[in-house]
Input
Amino acid sequence: MVDLAGQYNKIKPEVDAAIQEVVESAYFINGPQVKQFQSNLEKYLDVKHVIPCGNGTDALQVSLMALGLEPGDEVITTSFTFIATAEVIALLKLTPVLVDVDPDTFNIDPKAIERAVTEKTKAIIPVHLFGQCADMHSINDIAEKHDLFVIEDTAQAIGADYTCKIHDKTKKAGTLGHIGCTSFFPSKNLGAYGDGGAIFTDDDELAAQMRVVVNHGMAVRYYHDYVGVNSRLDTIQAAILDIKLKHLDEYAAARQKAATYYNNAFANHPKIKTPVTAPFTTHVYHQYTLVLNNVDREGLMKHLADKGIASAVYYPVPLHMQKAYLDPRYKEGDFPVTEALAKSVISLPIHTELNEEIQKEITEVFSEYVNK
Ligand SMILES: *Cc1c(COP(=O)(O)O)cnc(C)c1O
Output
């Protein structure tokens, strides 16, 4: 699905030197590269505070911890996402309230959020799934009306641009709500060579609180005012990410070019629906995800695998049907869009190292099965 080694080879001398420098300095934890990457990411995103942390799941957990929510408080999120989003809500004994998604963009449906708000609702976590922003204008309106926090899960959409309908102003994904969270998992659009994550906010108080939470609840050394966690970005990872950040826009352009090739190859096919990008956002294609109509997905995936072509299903099981998250409030049929997508989506390889030759083969082998 990705070619991380191919991508590394293009920046190898710079990355190798940066890693070597960290090893020789032995400044493995909180070395100067962490601050430098933090500051460069703040500039790139045009956000006041970036708080580096251990991974994207921690970023979400720390955000919720910093809001001082009480057990039983409700957090609204999407039924069609990676488990981490709901996992941290459940882990903190908050109540995940799931809502369905838009069938075109796969992102959380604001109308469904509005219907799910109760007096216990404290926050909304929209996920910018597969690389395009959710409808943040509508989500922020609902949040303002009901006095809710908005935490964006930007793990799949770092670098995407959102254009505010009213102000016609462009802002980066993750800087549109109160807090943004991202992951630097190796296959993410800005990937480290191991785990990593970060939290973004323009709010000074929230930033200060989150810096305390990631550091064992400690503002003054060995004085612990809160129960916190230990969540840090390694110096080596920060040094690598600082180099890759300079290439992020070029990486997004490569993914967009690959997506355009696929879009053209599958255009107007009665059995294949190509990705739909909402008018207010760019798409950075963390995944290139098609919706199949009347195609045996298992058979197709096997046909691709037999020819050495990767494919994947993100995500085969909606959150409310995951064993660990079964809940009497929900039953099969409650989220029809999510349930239909879980049965019909398929993702094709998309990354910075694709070329037309590879894509020609992928689309030909794919169409061979679908057209048979
Ligand atoms: C990858 C991902 C996460 C978690 O990130 P990790 O760094 O793996 O903990 C959270 N949410 C979404 C939508 C993701 O894709």
About this structure: The chain has two domains: 4-99+106-245, 248-370. The chain has a mean pLDDT of 97. The domain at 4-99+106-245 is CATH 3.40.640.10 (Aspartate Aminotransferase; domain 2).
